[in-house]
Amino acid sequence: MKKALLLLFLSVFLTKTYAQEYFPVNESVHNKSKNYTVFTNATIYVTPSNKIEKGTLLIQDGKVVAVGNAISIPKNAITIDLAGKTIYPSFIDIYTSFGVEKPKANITPGSSRNPLYDTKRVGYYWNESVRPEINTYETFKYDQPKADELLKAGFGVVGTHIPDGIAQGTGALVALNNEDNSKQIIANKLTNHLSFSKSALTNQNYPSSLMGSMALIRQMYLDLDWYKKGNSETKDLSLEALANNEKLVQIFTSEDKLNSLRAAKIAKEFGLNYVLKGSGNEFERIEEIKATNAKFIIPISFPEAYDVSNPYLSNQIELADMRFWNQAPTNLKVLSDNGIVFALTTEKLKKIEDFKPNLLKAIKLGFDKTKALESLTTVPAAILGKSAEVGSLKVGTYANFIITSGEFFDEKTVLYENWVQGSKFIVNDISAKDIRGNYDLTVGKDTYKWKIDGTADAQKSEVTTVDATKVKNTFSIAKNWISLVIKPADTIKSNYTRLTGFIEKTDALSGKAVLSNGDELIWTAVKTSPFVMAKDSSKVEKPLPIMPVTYPNIAFGDTKKQTVQTLLFKNATVWTNEKEGILTETDVLIKNGKIAAVGKNLSDAGATVIDAKGKHLTSGIIDEHSHIAISKGVNESGHNSTAEVTIEDVVNSEDINIYRDLAGGVTISQLLHGSANPIGGRSAIVKWKWGSSPDEMLYKNQPKFIKFALGENVKQANWGIDNPTRFPQTRMGVEQVFTDYFQLAKEYDESWKKFNSGSKKGKAPRVDLELQTLAEILNKERFITCHSYVESEILMLMNVAEKFNFRVNTFTHILEGYKVADKMKEHGVGASTFSDWWAYKFEVNDAIPFNGPIMHNQGLVVAYNSDDAEMSRRLNQEAAKAVKYGNISEEDAWKFVTLNPAKLLHIDDKVGSLKVGKDADVVLWSENPLSIYAKAEKTIIEGVVYFDIEKDAQKQLAIAKERSELIGQMLQEKNKGNGTQQPPTRKEKKEYHCDTLEQL
Predict the structure, then answer these.
(1) What is the dihedral of CA 42, 90, 46, 7, to 10 degrees?
(2) Cα 145 versus chain centre, distance
(3) Which of 402, 657, 767, 822 has its CA 20 to 30 A from that of 140?
(4) DSSP E strands, 743-878
(5) Which regions of 758-823 does DSSP assign to beta strands (E)?
(6) Is residue 742 within 8 Å of residue 800, measured between CB atoms?
(7) Beta bridge partners of 182
(8) Bond from prior residue into 89 cis (ω within 30 degrees of 0)
């Protein structure tokens, strides 16, 4: 039977047509070897879970022909005895830029950048960061020095791509075969790559933010679907390529745990399966990462410890950064323990030599060895759909394997050879003989004691005279040739004795010696005793204690997610914001996340009772206008209208300002797009559920809002651009933008209504996310919050709205609202303003602190907002200014930051007051909340305590203790001689405001 199988293998492989056989041969003899090579007596890992002891591996023409224990060896086979050695499949790194030149930005650093708004390319997609037509193999150049580095680390195959742009084009699969370039490219178009990053090759301004990238990707997929259905009258080479790439493996470079969740969200919307290239911080959001059901590519790079020897500099290091250094090596174990499928990549390693030490570090912290091997072999092969060719040593696969001295995951194991497609790459000489031991060395009339020790792959020499005097020497072994130079004790003299010899027997060495005068003679060395490994007296080094992960994994995070409680506040002063007004000595029961009861002498057997006597209980503060907790850009400034983008995509649940807002009694904020364009992006209403994911923070079934803007910012008067080219650049141009876009949206909406009413016959209109959003405004399904200052512009926008038969919902800032309060009342718009900001730029010269009270007295719904990370923590004090400047009652003033913003946001049916049945979003204050001395003692959202002033004090002590422990660990690392990095300069966190501009 075995012979029959062997004959079958022979018939298959000998009749196979080989690549490039038809090429001309310019050598004198065409002699391509078809011989077999057989490796015997090895421990062979066919797959990570299939190990064969004393096995045989038979290869021919770069493929595995047979593997097992009882293999018939062909007569013409070259046999290599690997007794005591181990064979593994060569490793696969599917995420590299091997052999490609990374595009460089065409913008000179520090030069004036005048944004480009339209594309210069003809026949391609309108956005130059969408480049799916790029094929890596077309510009690929094999990089042998880099290949050598990877081969030495055990890799045999790499995936490579050009990491540039949002849609980056296709990647290739390359064999690290230094001998036969005709076989190097295994697959020229195997993967399709995407990211959130702009192309370095474009000066096009859009997208300038992360939310812009996400909107662009959505629009790209919608355009692709529309294009494939034959609706376009023109050819688009980018969409053609994107359609052709659909069946390839889709790899999305996310580079952050939250970005992985964002990419997975897009994948779910469009029915895609992204393989997500992560960053190594996935353990910080492991539940959400697991819920994506995505496969991952994970870097094996870990940060070095910080040099904390200078106490002043060490104080600048964020706790999150110190903690990440400590926790990052656990990422692989956490991913594996949670059943997440992932492949490893060397990407981001400073040097490839760090690959194995980092992997061993992860294994010491619990990462399973079998899983580790899978992540380097079978998993990447399966992700690429290439399991029949690479990733294992099954019959028919490429003969890609490494030969080691033992288990790869042992620090002392030597990697000897790396075979790729049957071509041998020597890492360490496998034939080197171990001559360690003690010898009597004779050189002519001189005798010495010669001790050879060290490791088998790095043997060391010590030479002494018969009276035990050490003799200086240099010693090396290469390909079983010994070289020993005995140096004189007097360094001035040059009477060296040079010895060379080939090792034939390990117990008796000999060769030729050349004396300093040129005389030659024979030397001999007879082994007197074998080498004995010295016992390692040092204690086994225990891994450093790992700090617990918190939610979020920064200072003031919680070690576990908080849960709903039943709470009974007794004898509080209750600000109901209802017709009952302010109640004294009153109880409030919170149950199942709702206000269950308000009254006297309440009780509940399962409730935690809180003595609130002398304290004040209110509904949570609502900040109608905030820019905190937004990732990578508050403005999408790339176009004058960006209604397609949404802040919901970029909520940053890790922002410390969330915790600070909670400490100031804020429970809800509307996160608004900035004011860089007349028509900005969609907003996000969030509940500050500290420790939750971004999606969990989003207000459920929230009303739809969008940010509009008027004034200096939208016409680019303060952008610092030498020659602005984006329309509009005047206030009258702003009005024209609104008119034009609403007319376009009206026509867009009508075209879809006509198409849908006509049984959807004919060519469908193109889905346009921007116009679709604006049509929602016309259909009264989305509300406008408009950044505004000057009365003329306020009146202008109300006129435009009335022309298109809708109403503006809220004017925010509205510092000249007092001038047109009657017109605003007539229009039906609300106002969200500052309490007392004025004179900070020209267009607010007429602002007065009586603005809010005047509009309130006119009958408008008035709220005070922050528009500032610092002010949002003190909105209770801002509300008090309405009493100071406008003689507003305390109760009505408090509504400026609670019930009134809830009304403006159309959520007052659920929040904004203490009423039975509403969400239990409440704050317990130490005293009257309008007092500058009032402190929020407990901030509760839907029955969950997210801030507690007593626990806050405990957290501060815990943070100090943890910093001390981490500093101690880092000092240990430095004392051990391990690499360290300099502490970063103190991070100045960029706090977003309406006019903040930055590039993605």
Answers:
(1) -90
(2) 29
(3) 402
(4) 783-788, 810-813, 830-833, 862-864
(5) 783-788, 810-813
(6) yes
(7) none
(8) no
Distances (CA, A) of 503 to 271, 333, 440, 459, 525: 65, 46, 16, 14, 11
Alpha carbon distance 37, 13 (integer Å): 14
Phi, psi (degrees; rounded to nearest 5) at 277: -85, 110
| Among candidate residues 608, 618, 694, 682, the one with its CA nearest the CA of residue 658 | 694
Of 703, 635, 578, give the one whose Cα is nearest residue 994. Answer: 635
Q: Yes or no: say if 980 and 317 are a contact pair by the CB < 8 Å rule.
A: no
Q: Does 552 sit behind a cis peptide bond, omega within 30 degrees of 0 on the bond before it?
A: yes
The strand ranges marked E within 762-867 are 783-788, 810-813, 830-833, 862-864
Residue 456, Cβ density class (10 Å: 0-12 exposed, 13-18 middle, ≥19 buried): middle
The one-letter amino acid code at 613 reads: K
How sure is the predictor about 536, in pLDDT bands with cuts at 50, 70 and 90?
Answer: low
State the DSSP H helix or E strand holding residue 731, giving kind and residue range, or none if neither.
helix 731-757
**First and final CA of the chain: distance in angstroms?**
64
At 421 the three-state DSSP class reads: coil
Question: ∠ at Cα 959 (956, 965), nearest 5°?
Answer: 150
Question: Which DSSP symbol is given to 539?
Answer: P
Q: What is the pLDDT of residue 517?
A: 87
Question: Does residue 538 sit in helix, strand or coil?
Answer: coil
Q: What CA–CA distance (Å, rounded) separates 973 from 325? A: 12
Average pLDDT of the chain is 92
Q: Which burial class, exposed, middle or buried, applies to 907 when counting CB atoms under 10 A from its CB (0-12, 13-18, 19+)?
A: buried
Rounded Cα distance, 412 and 441, in Å = 29
563 — phi, psi (to 5°)?
-125, 165
How would you classify residue 289: left for phi > 0, otherwise alpha for psi between -120 and 50, otherwise beta? alpha
**Residue of 305, 288, 382, 370 whose CA lies nearest to 332:** 370
Can you give the pLDDT at residue 962?
Answer: 98
Tell me how far apart the alpha carbons of residues 560 and 551 are, in angstroms, rounded to a whole number.
Answer: 7
Non-local CB neighbours of 644 within 8 Å, separated by 6+ positions: 215, 218, 219, 681, 768, 769, 770, 773
Global pTM value:
0.92
* Gap between the Cα atoms of 6 and 2, Å rounded: 6
Cβ of 926: how many Cβ atoms within 10 Å? 15
Strand positions, DSSP E, 262-361: 274-277, 295-299, 305-306, 342-345
The answer to whether 263 and 275 are in contact (CB under 8 A) is: no
Structure tokens at 833: 């303003």
Q: Burial letters for 518-529: b for 16+ Cβ neighbours within 10 Å, e otherwise? A: eeeeebebebee
The answer to whether residues 373 and 404 touch, using CB atoms and an 8 Å cutoff, is no
Is residue 540 scored above 70 in pLDDT?
Answer: no
Q: List Cβ neighbours of 316 (8 Å cut-off, separation of 6 or more).
A: 983, 984, 985, 986
Give start and end residues of each alpha helix (H) in 184-256: 210-228, 237-244
Between strands 830-833 and 810-813, the pairing is: parallel
Can you state the angle between helices 949-975 and 319-327, rounded to 10 degrees? Answer: 60
- 241-267 per-position pLDDT tens digit: 999 999 999 999 999 999 999 999 999
Cα gap 72→14, rounded to integer Å = 17
Q: Which residue has the tokens 């023409």?
A: 61
